[in-house]
Structure formats: C-alpha cells, structure tokens
Amino acid sequence: MALLAAWLLASSLRFMLVKVGEPMSAASLRWTQTMAFAIEEINQRRDLLPRLKLGYHIRDSCDDIPVSLRSSLLLVSGPPDLNANSACRGVPRPVSPVIIGDAASGVSMAILRTLGSFGIPLVSYFASCNCLSNKKEFPTFMRTMPSDAFQIKAIAKLIRYFHWTWVGVIGVESDYARFAIQLFLEESSKYGACAAYVHFYPVLLSKESIADLMQTIRGSTAKVILNFSGESELQTILTECRRQNMTHIQWIASEAWATAKSLWGEFQGLLTGTLGFAIRKAEIPGLQGFLTRGLLVRAHQSPFFAELWEETFNCKLNVSLNRHVHSDAALSRRPCAEEEEAPEAVRSDYSDVSQLRVSYNVYKAVYLVAQALHDMKWHMCGPRKRPPLLLHYMKQASFNMLGEQVSFDKNGDPIASYDLMNWQKGPDGSLQLVKVGFYDTSLGGEKELVINDTAIWWHWGQQGPPASVCSASCTPGSRKATRKGEPICCFDCLPCTEGEISNETDSLDCRRCSVETWPNEAQDHCVPKTTEFLSYHGSMGIVLCTCSLFGLFVTMAIFGVFVAYRTTPVVRGNNMELSFLLLIFLSVCFLSGLTFIGEPTDWLCRIRYTTFGISFSLCISCILAKTVVVLMAFRATLPDSRVMRWFGPAQQRASVFLCTCIQIVICLIWLTTRPPLAVRNTRHHSSRIILECVVGSDVGFWSVLGYIGLLACLCFLLAFLARKLPDNFNEAKFITFSMLIFFAVWITFIPVYISTSGQYMVAVHIFAILASAFGILLCIFAPKCYIVLLKPEKNTKKQMMLKK
C-alpha cells in the first residue's frame, strides 16, 4: 500500500503569528484540522482512491511572504526525514504533487511566481483576488474560493438594489484590496453608482494615517462605506470611529470579514445592520466530533494545539510545545491541571461548526485533489512529470459534494455562490449572522441576486435602508444635468421644457409629446390636448350668440314697425321697397354671425364665409341704391329731368342684384379653387388644438372683403355728396354716418384679426359683423322709428316736403 504525500500550506493570519502580542486564531487551526479530517475520511472510503492513501504535512506561512516561500520550498523538495520512511526507497526524493494554500492572495502570488518552474498546482481555499485568474501569469493556480470578480458584481448589484449611488470605498494597502476596488469602480459605474472617495490605508495604521482616513470619511456625505480588509485592520478603524462618535455609517463588508464574529463584542453598536456577502456555508458530518476528540492528547503532541489549550484555559502545560508568548502575563501562568477537560474549547471558535465557510472550501480543495487523482489513476512512484497531468485532471474535475455540484471554469475558478449576511443583535446581545439573500451566478441575469428585504435589520433600528446619494433622484417630469467637473452621480434636476415629459426617475432626457398630445401638469406623461373653438357653451359664445339674436330681434321689430306704418310718409318717402330689402338682408347678416360659432367643419367653413360676403354685399348694394335714389330724386326736381324714369324700382332691384352677382362670382371662384377648410391648429398654442377655419385662398378672402369695401366707398362718396341737399328728412346724411361706422369697424378689424388666433380671432370676426350691422341698422332706421313712434306729428307729407 503506497503512501501519497499531499501537502497543505496553511495561512495562519493570526494562528501561529510570530509577532508578540497577537492572539492565536482558532479558526485557522480549524482549517488545518478540516483538511486532516477530509484526508482521513477519503482514506476510509472504498469508492475513492481504493488503493491509495493520502498523507499531508502542515507548514505555517505566518502570513509572511519570506516564511511562506521557505515553507513552500520545503514542501516541494520534501522534508529530509521523509525519504527514509518513504514507500519508494531508492528513488529520488518525492516532490509534493499539490499544495493547498495560501489564504492570502498576495502570499499565493509570491508562491506561484517562485514555484512556477516546478509546475506544482496550488489550490487556495481563501485567496480571492481576481488577478489570480490570469492563466498566463499563474497557469498552475486553482481555488475553491470564488474570484473577487463575482463578489464585486454581487456588491455592485446590492448597491444598485438599495439605490445607493454615493458610496465611500476604503481598503488596506494590498493586492487584494487594490484589485477588488478597481473592479468595484468599473462594475458599479455600469449601474450609475459613484465612489464618494477611494482611500487606501496601511496594514499598520499610524496616528497620521488613521486621522487622514477619519477626515476623509467625515468630510463626505456618503452614508454607506464599503471596506476591503481583514479583521485586524478594521478593528483599529472601528475603535477610532467609536471615539469620534461616527455611528451613522452603514457598513458593507467584503467577504474577508463578512462573518468575522470577533469584531462584534466590542463594536456591536457600530456594526449592527452590516451587510456583506459570505461564501456558502455547509454542514460537514462528523467534523465537530473530530475537532474535539482528544484535545489534551493533541496538546501534548502538537505546538498548535498546545497554544490553543494554553490560550483557552490561561494555563501552562507541563513540558509545553508552545514557544509563542503573546503577553508578559503568559510567562507567569499557573500550571494546567491534569483533570481539566475541554468544555470551553468545545465552545470556542475552533470547534464552532455553525459557520463552516472557509473550512468548507478547505474540505472541497482536498476532495478536488482526491477526485483528480482518482480520475488519473496514478501513484506516486511514477514519472516526475505527473504534476502537470494532475493539474489537467483537476481542471476537468466535476463532482457532487454535500448536495452541491462542484466544477470549475477555464480559469480554475469555481461557480460563484454567496450568502448575503446581515449582522443582527440576538436577544442575549450576541451576534446573529442572518442570511437575508443570496447571489448565485448559475441563475443568470437579474435572477442572480435575491434579497429578502423584510428580514434585514438596519443600522440603529431604521425601518428601511439609509439614503446615500450625492444628489437626490430626479422625479418624473425632470431630467438629470451633470455638474461640470463632478462625478456623474452629482447632478442637478432640471424641469422638462414646454411640451416635453419624462416618466422615469433619474431620466437623462425628456421626450417631446406627439402633435396630438401635451404634458400633464406634473410633466410625467402625455395627455390628449384640449380642443378649442368658439362654442355655444362658452361664455364668449353665449354673449355673441345673444347679441346676434338680439340684432335679429331688433331688425324684425323695425321690420314690423315699417309694415305697420307702411302708409305713412316717412316710410313711403324713403324708398320703402329698398328699406324692406335692407332689413331682410341685415337679418341675414345677424344670422351669418351664428355660423362662426360651433365646432368647425369643412362645409360650415365654406358656408360662413360665403354667407358673410354675400349678405353684406346685399346690404351695401341696397344702401348704394338708396343713395343713388336720393341723388336722382333731387335731380328729378329740375325742369325737363327724366332721371327717375331710368332709375325706377325695377332698375333699383336690378342694381342690387347686379352688384351682388359680382360678389357671388368671386365666392364661386374661391370655393372652386381653394375653398376654406377646417383644420386642427397646433402652432399658435402648444398645449391646445385650435379647431378653426382657414380661408384656403387668401386672395379669395381679401377679394370678398375688398369688394364689400369698394361698395361701401361708393356709398360713402355718394352719400357725402348728398348730405346737404335741401330736405327736411335727408336720408343721405344717415347713410354717411352708417358708412363711417362701417369703415371704422372694418379698418380696426384687419390688424386685430391678423394678430389674434383661435376662438378670439373668430370672436373678432363676429364682433365686426355685428358692429357694422348694428351701425347700419341704427344709423339708417333709428331716426325713422323715432319719428314714426315718438313724433307722429312730423310724419306728414307737409313736414316731409318742407325744405331747410
């Protein structure tokens, strides 16, 4: 039966530390015994390496590179006394086929660079630096500890989950911290997070370095701090934080101290609520019994256990193998009593199997080597080129352990899986490491990180996560504007401009609403624009409609008066037929104003403009005919004048029809070429859609107005010439006044009409129609109604024939 030598290089950060005054780490001793337990377990199995037995040799690296290099060289060259008892006598001194260690990334890199020419595989159980995944520089490296690249992705997603965009980042001066922080800065920037500061501090913190760190932390508004270091460095920082009453910090722990219970007793007030990712734990059957079996016997056989025993019971063993002195008080310790058992040791960190995380990595590392040896089926007496072959099988290894599938990627890294741990205070004041989530890269995408928010106990009993931002989030309706020269997490929130919205928090840009929509008051979503037109239901529409109907009523009332008094001289003496026609046409003018009220349609737009143009042409044509009649009447009083014969009632009606026909032709040309249309105007008012009529052809519209103006000018000219004709009731002067009002209205209308829009433009148009119609109605017919109704004594033929 051959003896296979498999060696473990145990990194004892505080285990067998040669510095005086440093306590021994019971956890590191547990790691070494976990390896011994795994080897013993494998050697008892019949299904794994049935013909081989594994052995081991433990060397202490003391977390010191020179010591580690010396120990590793001894392992690969073989102890001097091994060859004498080797099963392979007569062959060269055996080379260790594999080294399990070191715990520290920096020490592992130094060993790998030194042993590179040997081709010896090195399997680390705790070195997590991403730099070790570089196969060109470290081709023989593997680990059962996930790379920091995965831990950093988990931390970055954790920070994004709680919307922490302003995070302080500190770390010890080491390759581990530098690579981890560099990765964190790259990964967190993908999620919009920034580092409020990045501060590296030395392993041995002086007063100046700790003061500099405290000044950096106190001078920042960041409430969340991510720390990459071990327990001892953090202990110094926490002591100073407590002294300066800096208790507002939400700590994010790197994997190196995410489960460091030793920090709790002294700093529980600072660390309550701490979050951190820890490697998955497992329950290893039989390990606790192995750890506590025969401790006193081991203490007399091993300096490691001798130190553990003496530190636990504060006594001195008889003929002690422990050569480490941690304090002056240790020199005067009482002798250990032979009857002492080890209940305290059972309850120490050494035998605590409730958080088997690093120990589980050691356990997996041993089984990885065993599984590779089993697959390769070789024994130690073969050729010396076997280590590279072993490395090949180690990289290909895939096996099930305690319900977990263990495999490795091309860089020799395991599948990353972490537990999210929350530091909570138990009923008895002890630390409760509560699992509140997990991160598993095998799930992929957004499913990798799972968090149970309700299970988290926040710092100082807060109900939710603290806010740690440089600038408060921009609410919907605004956008982010970065500040010049500052990180992207520091920004101002600018409201979206008119017509734009943002419906997301921290939107980078605002987007413009469509033509048919407009932002709501909060500017966080688009709503349909309100349509605007001169409606019968609006106050303005009601007033104008009332005025139009009132004008119609007054016109019809005057028409009734004239019908009732049609035989009187005032009614008969001023061309009664043209007066009746004028009153009818004025009624149409008042009604034409109603076509401008209501929702515009194509047909309504065409009707309103043609009705307006033709009705006013009829009115002005009638007035023009009446003016001509006045002039002709006085010409007819001259001797031998036959003027009235050529401008009798038939000619008067014909002149009205002829003048109106010209306007009808203009309207027909306008309607057949580019007629008025109903449009949805979004130019004048961005927030409203104006339903309006456009004239289609500006030439057609202004031709209609121009022709009405031409007729009005002729009326005014003729009436002005006849205003002083000798008559007791000269109608020409009233026509002159009506035309002056007509001109005043429409000359004022043109600039106001052009400068307004929407319902106000329509209202101006209706006002011009009503004002000019009322002007004609009152100036021409009010004096007659006054005489007919109030001065009947003047309504006689004698009075009409008197000359001034």
From TrEMBL:
The chain crosses the membrane at residues 540-565, 577-597, 609-634, 654-673, 701-722, 734-754, 760-790. It is a multi-pass membrane protein. One of its GO terms (molecular function) is G protein-coupled receptor activity. It is found in: Cell membrane. This is Olfactory receptor C family, x2. Residues 1-20 form the signal peptide. The keyword Cell division does not apply. Pfam families: 7tm_3 (PF00003), ANF_receptor (PF01094), NCD3G (PF07562). The lineage of its organism: Eukaryota, Metazoa, Chordata, Craniata, Vertebrata. Residues 540-804 form the G-protein coupled receptors family 3 profile domain. Belongs to the G-protein coupled receptor 3 family. Keywords: Cell membrane, G-protein coupled receptor, Glycoprotein, Membrane, Receptor, Signal, Transducer, Transmembrane, Transmembrane helix. GO terms for cellular component: plasma membrane. The keyword Ribonucleoprotein does not apply. InterPro entries: ANF_lig-bd_rcpt, GPCR_3, GPCR_3_9-Cys_dom, GPCR_3_9-Cys_sf, GPCR_3_C, GPCR_3_Ca_sens_rcpt-rel, GPCR_3_CS, GPCR_3_vmron_rcpt_2. It comes from the Eukaryota.
